[in-house]
Amino acid sequence: MPAIVLVGAQWGDEGKGKATDLLGSSVDYVVKFNGGNNAGHTVVIEKDGKREKYALHLLPSGILSPNCVPVIGNGVVIDLSVLFEELDGLEARGVDTSKLLVSANAHVIPSYNRTIDKVTERFLGKRRIGTTGRGIGPTYADKMNRVGIRIQDLYDEGILRQKVEAALELKNQLLAKIYNTRGAEVDEVVEELLSYAARLAPMVADTSLVLSQALDRGETVLFEAGQATLLDVDHGTYPYVTSSNAVSAGACTGSGVPPTRIDSVIAILKAYTTRVGEGPFPTELHDDKGEFLRKTGAEYGTTTGRPRRCGWMDTVVGRYATRINGVTDFVITKLDVLTGLDKVPVCVAYDVGGVRHDEMPVNQTDFHHATPIYEELDGWWEDITDCRTFEDLPANAQAYVLRVEELIGARVSAIGVGPGRDEIIERFPLKPAVAG
Ligand code: GDP
Ligand code: IMO
Ligand code: MG
After folding, report:
1. What percent of the chain has pLDDT over 90?
2. Closest ligand 1 atom, CA of 302?
3. How far is CA 167 from the centre of its chain?
4. Of all atoms in ligand 1, which is nearest to the CA of residue 337?
């Protein structure tokens, strides 16, 4: 009954898509349990000797594995226009999307929440979060305020209309009186949502039941997080976070599969750190080294195209991710990007006003003022993209991985040495042994 949760250890874009794709061939279900089309996962696949790149936002990366059932869980917020656009795009490229299941309890992102996301950011000015503008925050807020629209509402027009009316009563006041923008029309919103209902109908399911029955049959389920630990609404760098639970615990609430059924937690950790949007980032580099990481690692957002902020590996963050997620295995990605540096600094602790912090400071203000304490490891110059075993790596690259492993406190089971599907070193098996 293996149930595996895969999460991001930092601020997103660690390479979760590639890691999911790696496991995809050996799992039966891949479940997206949080977030929406704020995510951007790039998967590079070798097809007929050519490299093909897929950018997924709303669909779980497992959709690219032919034998895998992709599932969108109840914890996801769905922009239906994006869902069908993404499905059409994949089908046009010959990907079979017919197995997709969508939770009846997932919430939809109505068009007015995209508007509210964008105007709120404008209104916040200097205090903006730097959201992706996809309506994620307002839709989760509606869910908590109990004025959200769920997938199942599309199949009861009366209820749908009532819910849209209730939501717009307040929102249209906000849009007109505070934000000075045009409100939304109930009829237009209802009509748009209903236009998706028929095509969506065969995909709608009680996904909690489906997954639990799959686990009972001994099948393997992989839960793929969007975003990452430090972007989690409870455990991240609040308020500079997304609005969902991106940590491993979110896999349970976001899918209806209980914690007692989870066997392992894989965290994806980039060999350095990146962040998109606003918020504190102790190891951020504003010099040519930061530019080196951005250029060499092609650090531009898959979703918004924004240049990602770049900095050195922060093992305080890594250790925190181990604790909050209960990490059993790490995958370190993009080690190849660090090739060609004399010294590779690794942040081991913070200095906050003269006081050393080995753990994440509990107060956000301290985190904003944290100065990294670095250990300088020796770099390597050899091209590592063809390395396929740990021993193939140059001694200094091995030493880098081993030191990071020691600092983060959980084993490093795989190491990414390039974007391609096979450009990975599998040091220890990532899948738990199948019971029975
Ligand atoms: P995600 O959001 O966590 O799925 O990550 P993204 O797809 O947004 O960003 C990760 C980027 O790094 C993608 O362009 C991947 O193709 C690429 N990538 C993943 N693993 C590696 C690796 O080991 N080396 C290199 N050079 N690129 C990688
Ligand atoms: P993946 O799954 C990196 C960031 C945004 C912003 C904050 C809130 O590709 O790792 P939101 O639109 O969610 O309300 O924005 O969160 N953010 C991400 N950063 N990777 C992501 O997803 C992200 N999803 C949201 O940049 O700072
Ligand atoms: Mg991404």
Report:
1. 92
2. 8
3. 28
4. 26
